[in-house]
Design brief:
Peroxisomal Thiolase, Chain A, domain 1, about 25% strand, four-stranded mixed β-sheet, about 325 residues, binds coenzyme A, 2 domains, alpha/beta
Length: about 325
């Protein structure tokens, strides 16, 4: 049996820090409201001339360095993103060229904030079936580009960044299981209701923005991210005490705390970056994961449960043995 093992992680955050105090100058909000309702103190924002592929490249290079491999050993590249540089070619294709690789498949995966879990699942299946031996999986976003900076209900929540992992074929697990779900009937609760084929004039006018029914999204995020913890544990015959680390999507500290409580996982086993990163969509899980690997919290042999939730709705998880 072939499994995928995570042999390297990396991440990158743009330099510009946007604090809650900065936001007070843009919209009718304040530090107390933002921090108490979301747990966010600051987020990073890409420079005007910095694009999703730039963030993806920095995160990818860090992951490749930590894996100790050469770029040309990579035979699959997946980029989870909602904010691709271009309509086409895909950001994965652009990234492949930047890395000096040619030939193997590279494509984007779009599942918004759950995108990294969807991309991990696809890469894992490529490796398990022998179609790839060494996959680069990236979550990268410049979400600030699809935010209405005059809408206080959304602009305080999001930020930019990228995270990446390198997966390699191995006889030992590795990724123990992945679980993906979608339910498109909630499409209007969290969306950018504009695209190339529909309402393209809004893109040209620069008004293609994220809209959200915050309370409903909150409720669904807690339910879906709690239920998928149980689903993942059951699939592996494990119980909650077997989890060394939970790395949840970073959307709101109150969502993270509610999920931890419902799933019975104590706060000291939950990786949290929301205070410094905000919600970086598809980048949030690999960013948090990389932080906890690099600071030594996540160690070899640990069982780590990664989970994401996003517009669609989409939600997914992966149980990983490090
Ligand atoms: N600053 C100050 N006040 C704000 C505000 C802001 N940035 N944003 C909203 N408010 C106001 C509202 O207008 C409302 O005022 P009103 O009662 O006079 O109408 C009040 O605060 C409460 O708003 P409400 O939306 O009920 O707050 P909430 O406790 O639900 O928190 C969110 C709002 C968005 C933080 C919360 O619903 C949430 O996190 N939802 C999930 C969002 C998410 O995770 N999205 C991404 C998923 S991938």
């Amino acid at each position: 049996m072939t499994y995928s093992r995570i042999i390297g992680t990396g991440s990158y955050l743009p330099e510009k820090v946007l604090t809650n105090a900065d936001l007070e100058k843009l919209v009718d909000t304040n530090e107390d409201w933002i921090y108490s309702r979301t747990g966010i103190r600051q987020r990073r924002i890409a420079a005007d001339d910095e694009f999703t592929c730039d963030l993806a490249e920095r995160a990818a290079l860090n992951a490749i360095a930590s894996a100790g491999i050469l770029n040309n050993q990579i035979d699959l590249i997946l980029v989870a993103t909602t904010t691709a540089d271009q309509v086409f070619p895909s950001t994965a294709c652009l990234l492949q060229h930047r890395l000096g690789i040619a030939g193997p498949p590279a494509f984007d995966v779009q599942a918004v904030c759950a995108g990294f879990l969807f991309a991990m699942d696809v890469a894992d299946k490529f490796i398990k079936t022998g179609s790839a031996k060494c996959a680069l999986v990236v979550g990268a976003e410049t979400f600030s580009r699809i935010i209405d900076w005059s809408d206080r209900r959304t602009c305080v929540l999001f930020g930019d960044g990228a995270g990446a992992v390198v997966l390699k074929a191995d006889n030992e697990p590795g990724i123990l299981s992945t679980h993906l779900h979608c339910d498109g009937k909630y499409k209007n609760l969290l969306c950018v209701p504009v695209g190339v084929s529909k309402n393209f004039n809004q893109i040209k006018a620069g008004t293609a923005f994220t809209t959200m029914q915050g309370r409903e999204v909150f409720r669904w995020a807690v339910t879906a991210m709690s239920d998928i913890v149980d689903e993942t544990l059951n699939a592996n015959g494990m119980n909650r005490d077997d989890i060394d680390w939970l790395v949840p999507h970073q959307a709101n500290i109150r969502i993270i705390n509610a999920v931890g409580k419902r799933a019975g996982i104590p706060p000291e086993k939950v990786v949290v970056t929301i205070d410094r990163h905000g919600n970086t969509s598809a980048a949030s899980v690999p960013l948090a994961f990389d932080e906890a690997v690099r600071d030594g919290r996540i160690q070899s042999g640990h069982h780590v449960l990664l989970e994401g939730f996003g517009g669609g709705f989409t939600w997914g998880s992966a149980m990983v043995k490090m």
